[in-house]
Amino acid sequence: MAKRALVTGGAGFIGSHVADLFLAEGFAVTIIDNLASGRRENLPAGAEFHELDIASADAAALVRDGGFDVVLHLAAQIDVRKSVTDPMFDARTNVVGSLNLLEAARAAGQGSGRSPRVVFASTGGALYGDFVTPPAVETYAKDPESPYGIAKLSVEYYMAYYARQHGLECVALRFANVYGPRQDPHGEAGVVAIFCNRILDGRPMTTFGTGEQTRDYVFVKDVARANFLAGTAELPPVGMLDARAFNVGTGIETSVNALAAALIEGAGRDTPIERAPARPGELQRSALVIDKAAEQLGWRPQVGLVDGLRETFAFFAERHARACGGSPTGGVGASA
Ligand code: NAD
After folding, report:
1. What are phi and psi of 212, to 5 degrees?
2. pTM score > 0.85 for this model?
3. Residues at CB less than 6 angstroms from ligand 1
4. In sequence order, which ranges of 43-96 are alpha helices (DSSP H)?
5. What is the distance in A from the centroid of ligand 1 to the CA of 78?
6. Which amino acid residue places its CA nearest to atom 4 of ligand 1?
7. CB atoms within 10 A of CB 56
8. How far is the CA of 74 from the centre of ligand 1 (A)?
9. Run of H or E including 17
10. Per-residue pLDDT tens digits for 272-282
11. For 140-150, what is each residue's pLDDT tens digit?
12. How many Cβ atoms sit within 10 Å of the Cβ of residue 110?
């Protein structure tokens, strides 16, 4: 019988790629999503879909009784700025919703049942803060600067507790800035979607301050593979914060200026760049050391930045053309 995977947030950007990969690997896939930011069109054919809030009793019952081997928990309120303006809303989804699923996964193991492994979409970009000099390793001090980062760290602490106290298998993947087809402008690598749309609208790309702020951009299909390996690899039982956490990035710091240049190359479109004043409080540098994922999960990113941006731009060009009722605007892959 096929193994069973539950993907929360499977109508979203990263979750839909995770669901695609688990289906391709022969798993029976069930998706929970309340479509807050996800789209029906992202749902893969062949997955069973439940339109549910992760904080609901119905979602808990599904996790408890569904006989899943693995839960890939990606559903979240993902907007860092929204978490600042409405931390209660953020915590209801990102803390209480996650706890609801962990409690249900624990309950699944009672009696003759067994608990699924829980793989959680945490963040590398919003966890370590400006407190440490990048690239960050998993054991570095955490200094989340937003309620979003605090919520992700809280869930990691809960997972360490569930592992220790209840033997629940938990893995936290700390994603860097994930970009790729289906991405949302509000996510942690939103700049890629914004730049793609600017190019397609024939408008300049805006960089703030010097444009030398750095991020670690990782392609979504590489991130999906990290989820697959985290969900299926043999891992020793551990129950401490950081022990079952893996950074998922590239280890490469890319400045906004370099990102714009790589996108121009990938898209095959020369586009002007306009400068705007620096934004106060913006994180200046971010990158993750990924050796642990390589050693313990056998995972390394495989898609380079220009290739990933080319595929991402092609996706936005097709969506743009559909919206305009024409064919994709030229230049995609011109530099391939
Ligand atoms: P996304 O918004 O595309 O996906 C999140 C999904 O969760 C959406 O489909 C949304 O409808 C769903 N959702 C939101 N609240 C829900 C709720 N209460 N109940 C059920 N479903 C709900 O975002 P994404 O970029 O694909 O992010 C996926 C995960 O990865 C999130 O946990 C996010 O915090 C994490 N993450 C993303 C990045 C990034 O760069 N995109 C970086 C670090 C971590």
Report:
1. -95, 5
2. yes
3. 9, 11-15, 32-38, 53-55, 74-78, 93, 97, 121, 123, 125, 175, 177-178, 184, 187-189
4. 57-65, 80-85, 87-91
5. 5
6. 12
7. 15
8. 5
9. helix 13-24
10. 999 999 988 88
11. 999 899 999 99
12. 11
